[in-house]
Amino acid sequence: LATRDQQWADVQEDETHSSAALSWVSSANTADTDFPIQNLPFGVFQKDGTARIGIGIGDQILDLRWAYQKGMLSSLGGLAPLCAEATLKPLMEKGRAAARQVRRLAFQLLHAGSAQQERVRAGLVSMQEAEMMLPVEIGDFTDFYTSVHHARRGGKIARPSSPELFPNFKNLPIAYHGRASTVVPSGTLCRRPWGQFLTGSNDLSHMAPTQKLDFELEVGCYVGPGNHHGQPIALVDTPQHIFGVCLVNDWSARDIQRWESQPLGPFLSKSFMTSVSPWVVTLDALQPFQVPPADRGDDAPRLSPYLDSPEHRLKGGLDITLQVLLRTSRMREDGRDAAVVTETRYANQFWTSFQMLAHHSSNGCNLRTGDLLSSGTVSDSEQSRAGCLFELTWDGTTPIPLPNGEQLTYLSDGDEVVFRGRCSRDGYRSIGFGTCSGLVIPALSQYPGARA
Ligand code: MN
């Protein structure tokens, strides 16, 4: 393991972060690509019926199984065969230093001065031709609630006569245990779920398709090496336990959620599906974009020591600009591009990904390789920069006008939701996350077993 200083400080910046670096893959050098050579995210894709690990570069994927078979990964020693697996799990287990070695070797193979350019070219697969899969089998999925703006505004909408925030919000990162089996890769269709909810007249609908389908714009992180049961992870050690970061759409049915959530929290209103962007951006790639966590405000209680460290105060935040784009079926028919419906910043979260991990393990709960921890909805102080329609439209009561005159409240069948994420900083090359998208399709026309 690296020393504690090295886990957080700038000493790890190397040639892979230099803004001057270019790739011989020309699409990686365009200004708007999410995947310049400074990023090099990991993913799993399918080609010829087999799943392989790949590294994203421009609009191409470097096939690591191919590179392994051609002997190009031999400098990785024992890590090399892990790159030929069908899932990222064995590599994630090896920790941050292993991911760094593979990323640095990919840099050597792909940078503009590489002597191996002609050989490596045969190992590129076009992203357009690859089917992206989940990077790892997700054992557990935990969804947090870490935006103070989301919590405040949500409280105002749902419980107008109560205090906006629950009293514990500023003391600990609140979460619920999500459902791992329905975490799916970007592009998977989202079928509108059936459920129980109260209708506008407060009558109980015993079973109907949700009328309030929503997205939640979130940032997820994958656990690399886990911890032993009973052994918490210190905040200062959390960077060693996070393999990388992705975008998450925690699809939500607000009417079902409102009816079922008291007293034990969300259940079926969330568990029908959660989409993730397939590219995992490593903490190494994100290093230039680590910033101090958001200001906690004057009224916040003192941080518990297990959620605070000098290093975290300097580097705990991740400065990611997030966008939601939406395309209705009419926009698609008319050949219109998706419209941006909100933009927000992950650095504004009240709690950071590192604090989530430290808190999650603080009772001795063991996290395991491939577990997914998500941030909860990322919202800003302004309503127009919230990360879900519940807030953006005040529970569907104030529609958002779309460029073609359509009015957006909750999601309609045929709507396509696309998330994007991007990191920018003066003196550094911008990197991005690719997309996390999903198209809403109609509910089952009849509930199974229902009598006609
Ligand atoms: Mn959520």
Task: Walk me through the structure.
- With about 450 residues, this protein is an alpha+beta fold.
- Helices cover about 20% and strands about 25% of the residues.
- The strands form seven sheets. Strands 6, 7, 8, 13, 14, 16, 17 and 22 form an eight-stranded mixed β-sheet that branches.
- Strand 25 and strand 26 form a beta hairpin.
- The longest helix has 15 residues, at about 95-110.
- It is globular and about 70 Å long.
- Manganese (II) ion (MN) binds near residues 143, 216, 218, 376 and 377.
Give me the count of strands: 26
Helix segment tally = 13
Low-confidence stretches: none
Shape: globular
Strand content: 25-35%
Oligomer category: single chain
- What ligand molecules are bound, each kind once? manganese (II) ion
Radius of gyration: 22 Å
Q: Level of helix content?
A: 10-25%
Report the major sheet: 8 strands, mixed
What distance separates the N and C termini? 63 Å
User: Helix/strand-derived class?
Assistant: alpha+beta
What is the average per-residue confidence, as pLDDT, rounded to a whole number? 95
Quick description:
With 452 residues, the chain is of the alpha+beta class. It is 19% helix and 25% strand.
Strand-helix topology:
Layout lengths: L3 H5 L33 E6 L2 E8 L2 E4 H6 L19 H5 L2 H15 L6 H5 L2 E3 L4 E3 L7 E4 L3 H11 L16 E3 L5 E3 L4 E2 L2 E5 L5 E6 L3 E2 L2 E7 L18 E8 L2 E2 H7 L7 H4 L2 E3 L4 E2 H4 L3 E2 L18 H6 L1 E2 L2 E7 L1 H5 L5 E7 L7 H8 L11 E3 L14 H4 L7 E2 L5 E2 L7 E8 L7 E11 L11
Parallel strand pairs: 6-22, 8-16, 9-26
Antiparallel strand pairs: 1-2, 1-5, 2-3, 3-4, 6-7, 10-11, 12-15, 13-14, 13-22, 14-16, 14-17, 18-19, 20-21, 20-25, 23-24, 25-26
Manganese (II) ion binds next to loops.
